[in-house]
């Protein structure tokens, strides 16, 4: 790998963009899915093969490499002060038929950044560590952030031990087959971790639309998710006059239309999505007796989320009365917004300005491992653009030059945090 | 059966209501579905058993009984004029898990009416015939009105010969196994049929809501059915700002809401139903890229159907532009309204008035065999109430007294048509 890294004094690698792409493709070879893209589910063969390959690469680069109990893989460049670690990295798992960028780009970026810093500046003041987090997506088992939650000590064994995957394989069995075990919950989490910086693809289209290469994340949105169930009365489409109907689809479409209009009136950064609609009996010539739909609501300010919840609840009540249907609202997800550490955000922004990078300070509308670290240690995040915002899809794509800009921004950030 | 029919001079049977119910239940025993209600699909064992049972009953009552080529079962009370037949009856097939009333009530009503008239008035001027039509629902094979279309000569062999049922059984094989064969298409249809009168449950809630026992149908609605496909762009629910979205579900709910509001503005008897909505990918945290929904549109006046079609098409275009999505509209059903014969409608109405029956002149929002006969011979229809409008369901129910009122109205009508 010696020829991979060539420093030209101004944070320039020779062919950096191409090298990142090659590494992403190389990691992809361990998890190619015949159905398209890559599938690397927690503790699967693809997952194990990829972690082992990463381990070899990191060892070749001279990092001190180790797995923790649950399968998070770390590569450390020791600093003068062994007790303080600046951590970077992202998750290695993917969704089913995912792309080459979500998750693994943050790991490749971290490794390349540390290699560069080592070559350029030698030993840092603080340890520099890159982590390939075991799991974030919740795609094999219905549990997210298994990797990061184990590092900060917030993973709970009893929350996962009864989970099974879609083939009926229990969580613990999958884990032990991959060679890992539950972390002893009484054991204190690592005390050396002082900072976490994650690099990730945006999974949205803001950077691309605004023609920026790097996003400096100042906050991760809070989310609420609801299921709204509208119960009317199924009836014959021909023989039931409009005024005798209790049409659940009519009522639901009215609600959805008004709720999303309201969301647009609230303005950015509020986003509201009705992603799922299920009508019953869902037959062309039957007036629907039931409509169930979801609402996904996100904002960086909890107060706005609460206020919007009250407003749309009122709307649903009014519209239910108008259509003579019943409606219930079930809230099944409620996470608070997570601000990134303002000092690190400032450091990153200053660095981007200094280096004349094309950047935008923004929020993250998606959840990331950074939100698990943030309540415990100062945390920050960098984005690179996602072409058309496509994500969780084999067509996921980021321009190689933008991938390179992201790594450069990370290098500068880690230098500020670990060498100064 | 002698004791079944007792005339008391004013079209009164002793225990008529109970006797109708017992006959419906008896027919139901040949097609009981362990999953609920009755299932009597064309040419199935249940179908054959029921037709045979009906044949025995009609023979016992002294009617001249015969099957035609395709399995329509007729019972004839010969009149003085052998060349003219007044036909009544309905279909014997049911949907899967149907109820005891849809179809078979019209056959039971016809048999009991003819028995009564024979006992009361002897030989009619014209033949009186009750038919148990082979098929109307299209529940086994995707083809409706197989029974009545064969009688009027509009059934086309090539339209059904390639059809298979859900078990892969071809139409012709099912038919020959039941002992029937295609009708020779070149053969002219029966020339003796002069009038058809069908009695059926309303399958709607108008009669019940207006507290009437009998509906006198003056027209069967015309129908159009459309599939509207809205194509936007699937995106991440968190990372795609509202203004960057092409949300197919938002656009579709806007369209549905406006279209159905428009339908209400048009007023009765227009009915518009969005019975089916399918969202893609239909995941809570993904902005939907596609929404497909149906529109079922009915009215007794073709001009109104055409006008509404133009109006909603314009709305869909406008809303598509507003949401920056594409929309296509496919029309896949288009049947004209079918008026019933005004003279027979008048005869029925006069009879109902005379006999002080609780009736309402109305249209049929559902399709019936009567619409197949109407273009060929003067045709009329009578309805009895459906409790809560429930139909195609084991819970289908009509008050026994209303069942009796329907038979009385039919008796009076057949008397006017066959004896005068």
Automatic annotation (TrEMBL), chains A, B:
<feature type="binding site">
    <location>
        <position position="102"/>
    </location>
    <ligand>
        <name>Zn(2+) 2</name>
    </ligand>
</feature>
<dbReference type="InterPro" id="IPR036264">
    <property type="entry name" value="Bact_exopeptidase_dim_dom"/>
</dbReference>
<feature type="binding site">
    <location>
        <position position="225"/>
    </location>
    <ligand>
        <name>allantoate</name>
    </ligand>
</feature>
<feature type="binding site">
    <location>
        <position position="392"/>
    </location>
    <ligand>
        <name>Zn(2+) 2</name>
    </ligand>
</feature>
<dbReference type="GO" id="GO:0016813">
    <property type="term" value="F:hydrolase activity, acting on carbon-nitrogen (but not peptide) bonds, in linear amidines"/>
</dbReference>
<feature type="binding site">
    <location>
        <position position="285"/>
    </location>
    <ligand>
        <name>allantoate</name>
    </ligand>
</feature>
<feature type="domain" description="Peptidase M20 dimerisation">
    <location>
        <begin position="222"/>
        <end position="323"/>
    </location>
</feature>
<protein>
    <submittedName>
        <fullName>Allantoate deiminase</fullName>
    </submittedName>
</protein>
<comment type="similarity">
    <text>Belongs to the peptidase M20 family.</text>
</comment>
<dbReference type="Pfam" id="PF07687">
    <property type="entry name" value="M20_dimer"/>
</dbReference>
<keyword id="KW-0479">Metal-binding</keyword>
<keyword id="KW-0378">Hydrolase</keyword>
<feature type="binding site">
    <location>
        <position position="298"/>
    </location>
    <ligand>
        <name>allantoate</name>
    </ligand>
</feature>
<feature type="binding site">
    <location>
        <position position="102"/>
    </location>
    <ligand>
        <name>Zn(2+) 1</name>
    </ligand>
</feature>
<dbReference type="InterPro" id="IPR011650">
    <property type="entry name" value="Peptidase_M20_dimer"/>
</dbReference>
<dbReference type="InterPro" id="IPR010158">
    <property type="entry name" value="Amidase_Cbmase"/>
</dbReference>
<dbReference type="InterPro" id="IPR002933">
    <property type="entry name" value="Peptidase_M20"/>
</dbReference>
<dbReference type="GO" id="GO:0046872">
    <property type="term" value="F:metal ion binding"/>
</dbReference>
<feature type="binding site">
    <location>
        <position position="200"/>
    </location>
    <ligand>
        <name>Zn(2+) 1</name>
    </ligand>
</feature>
<dbReference type="Pfam" id="PF01546">
    <property type="entry name" value="Peptidase_M20"/>
</dbReference>
<keyword id="KW-0862">Zinc</keyword>
<feature type="binding site">
    <location>
        <position position="91"/>
    </location>
    <ligand>
        <name>Zn(2+) 1</name>
    </ligand>
</feature>
<feature type="binding site">
    <location>
        <position position="137"/>
    </location>
    <ligand>
        <name>Zn(2+) 2</name>
    </ligand>
</feature>
